[in-house]
Amino acid sequence: MKIQSLIYAVLIGFTLQGLAAENSQAANHLKSRIIEPTDLLQWGVGMLVVLAMFFACVWTMRKLTALTPGPAAKMRVLGGVSVGIRERIVLVEIGKKQLVVGVAPGRIETLLVLEGDDCLSQQQSRDPDGGGAFAQKLMQAMKGVGRSDA
Question: Looking at the whole model, is its pTM more than 0.70?
Fold first, then answer.
Protein backbone atom coordinates (compact mmCIF):
# COMPACT_ATOMS: atom_id res chain seq x y z
CA MET A 1 0.00 0.00 0.00
CA LYS A 2 2.93 2.30 0.80
CA ILE A 3 4.49 1.59 -2.59
CA GLN A 4 1.25 2.43 -4.40
CA SER A 5 0.91 5.79 -2.62
CA LEU A 6 4.58 6.54 -3.38
CA ILE A 7 4.00 5.86 -7.09
CA TYR A 8 0.95 8.16 -7.09
CA ALA A 9 2.94 10.93 -5.41
CA VAL A 10 5.75 10.65 -7.96
CA LEU A 11 3.30 10.68 -10.88
CA ILE A 12 1.45 13.71 -9.50
CA GLY A 13 4.77 15.50 -8.96
CA PHE A 14 5.85 14.88 -12.57
CA THR A 15 2.45 15.97 -13.88
CA LEU A 16 2.49 19.21 -11.92
CA GLN A 17 6.08 19.92 -12.98
CA GLY A 18 5.16 19.35 -16.64
CA LEU A 19 2.13 21.63 -16.39
CA ALA A 20 4.20 24.37 -14.79
CA ALA A 21 6.77 24.16 -17.59
CA GLU A 22 4.06 24.35 -20.27
CA ASN A 23 2.40 27.34 -18.57
CA SER A 24 5.70 29.21 -18.32
CA GLN A 25 6.42 28.64 -22.03
CA ALA A 26 2.93 29.83 -22.98
CA ALA A 27 3.32 32.89 -20.75
CA ASN A 28 6.68 33.76 -22.33
CA HIS A 29 5.14 33.41 -25.80
CA LEU A 30 2.24 35.71 -24.88
CA LYS A 31 4.56 38.30 -23.34
CA SER A 32 6.66 38.52 -26.46
CA ARG A 33 3.62 38.93 -28.75
CA ILE A 34 2.57 42.50 -29.55
CA ILE A 35 -0.94 43.48 -30.59
CA GLU A 36 -0.75 44.23 -34.28
CA PRO A 37 -3.10 46.28 -36.46
CA THR A 38 -4.32 43.08 -38.11
CA ASP A 39 -5.49 41.88 -34.69
CA LEU A 40 -7.50 45.05 -34.19
CA LEU A 41 -8.95 44.69 -37.69
CA GLN A 42 -9.93 41.09 -36.98
CA TRP A 43 -11.62 42.07 -33.70
CA GLY A 44 -13.46 44.95 -35.39
CA VAL A 45 -14.73 42.75 -38.23
CA GLY A 46 -15.84 40.13 -35.74
CA MET A 47 -17.73 42.76 -33.74
CA LEU A 48 -19.43 44.05 -36.90
CA VAL A 49 -20.49 40.53 -37.85
CA VAL A 50 -22.00 39.94 -34.40
CA LEU A 51 -23.84 43.28 -34.47
CA ALA A 52 -25.12 42.61 -37.99
CA MET A 53 -26.46 39.23 -36.88
CA PHE A 54 -28.12 40.84 -33.85
CA PHE A 55 -29.86 43.53 -35.91
CA ALA A 56 -30.89 40.95 -38.52
CA CYS A 57 -32.54 38.88 -35.78
CA VAL A 58 -34.32 41.94 -34.38
CA TRP A 59 -35.56 42.95 -37.85
CA THR A 60 -36.77 39.38 -38.54
CA MET A 61 -38.64 39.21 -35.24
CA ARG A 62 -40.37 42.53 -35.94
CA LYS A 63 -41.44 41.38 -39.39
CA LEU A 64 -42.69 38.03 -38.13
CA THR A 65 -44.71 39.52 -35.29
CA ALA A 66 -46.25 42.09 -37.64
CA LEU A 67 -47.46 39.36 -40.00
CA THR A 68 -49.22 37.21 -37.43
CA PRO A 69 -52.69 38.56 -36.72
CA GLY A 70 -53.46 38.32 -33.04
CA PRO A 71 -56.32 39.39 -30.83
CA ALA A 72 -54.79 42.87 -30.59
CA ALA A 73 -55.40 43.37 -34.33
CA LYS A 74 -59.14 43.69 -33.59
CA MET A 75 -58.60 46.20 -30.78
CA ARG A 76 -58.27 49.97 -31.34
CA VAL A 77 -58.23 53.02 -29.13
CA LEU A 78 -60.79 55.43 -30.60
CA GLY A 79 -60.38 58.34 -28.22
CA GLY A 80 -59.74 59.50 -24.73
CA VAL A 81 -60.44 62.28 -22.25
CA SER A 82 -58.20 63.26 -19.37
CA VAL A 83 -60.19 63.56 -16.14
CA GLY A 84 -57.30 64.23 -13.78
CA ILE A 85 -53.56 64.44 -13.58
CA ARG A 86 -53.05 60.72 -14.10
CA GLU A 87 -56.56 59.47 -14.85
CA ARG A 88 -58.15 59.06 -18.27
CA ILE A 89 -61.37 57.79 -19.75
CA VAL A 90 -60.67 55.90 -22.97
CA LEU A 91 -62.97 54.57 -25.69
CA VAL A 92 -61.71 51.21 -26.98
CA GLU A 93 -63.18 49.28 -29.91
CA ILE A 94 -62.96 45.49 -29.65
CA GLY A 95 -64.58 43.74 -32.57
CA LYS A 96 -68.10 45.16 -32.83
CA LYS A 97 -68.26 46.38 -29.23
CA GLN A 98 -66.96 49.63 -27.82
CA LEU A 99 -65.84 49.88 -24.22
CA VAL A 100 -65.53 53.01 -22.11
CA VAL A 101 -62.63 52.28 -19.80
CA GLY A 102 -61.28 54.23 -16.84
CA VAL A 103 -57.49 54.13 -16.70
CA ALA A 104 -55.48 55.12 -13.63
CA PRO A 105 -52.01 54.12 -12.45
CA GLY A 106 -52.21 50.47 -11.45
CA ARG A 107 -55.92 50.17 -12.27
CA ILE A 108 -58.08 49.71 -15.38
CA GLU A 109 -61.83 49.44 -14.99
CA THR A 110 -64.65 49.00 -17.51
CA LEU A 111 -67.15 51.82 -17.06
CA LEU A 112 -69.57 51.13 -19.89
CA VAL A 113 -70.08 48.70 -22.80
CA LEU A 114 -71.51 50.25 -25.96
CA GLU A 115 -73.31 47.96 -28.40
CA GLY A 116 -75.66 48.42 -31.33
CA ASP A 117 -77.10 51.95 -31.63
CA ASP A 118 -74.97 53.26 -28.75
CA CYS A 119 -71.72 52.67 -30.68
CA LEU A 120 -70.04 55.51 -32.49
CA SER A 121 -70.18 55.16 -36.26
CA GLN A 122 -67.04 53.99 -38.08
CA GLN A 123 -66.73 57.34 -39.87
CA GLN A 124 -66.71 59.27 -36.59
CA SER A 125 -64.16 56.94 -35.02
CA ARG A 126 -61.71 57.40 -37.91
CA ASP A 127 -62.16 61.17 -37.98
CA PRO A 128 -59.15 62.93 -36.37
CA ASP A 129 -61.51 65.52 -34.88
CA GLY A 130 -63.60 62.73 -33.31
CA GLY A 131 -62.52 63.76 -29.80
CA GLY A 132 -65.48 66.16 -29.54
CA ALA A 133 -67.87 63.47 -30.75
CA PHE A 134 -66.43 61.08 -28.19
CA ALA A 135 -66.94 63.60 -25.38
CA GLN A 136 -70.55 64.22 -26.47
CA LYS A 137 -71.28 60.51 -26.77
CA LEU A 138 -69.67 59.88 -23.38
CA MET A 139 -71.84 62.54 -21.74
CA GLN A 140 -74.96 61.04 -23.35
CA ALA A 141 -74.00 57.56 -22.19
CA MET A 142 -73.30 58.79 -18.67
CA LYS A 143 -76.68 60.53 -18.52
CA GLY A 144 -78.36 57.40 -19.86
CA VAL A 145 -76.68 55.25 -17.22
CA GLY A 146 -77.71 57.69 -14.49
CA ARG A 147 -81.37 57.54 -15.58
CA SER A 148 -81.49 53.74 -15.70
CA ASP A 149 -80.06 53.48 -12.16
CA ALA A 150 -82.61 55.86 -10.62
Answer: no
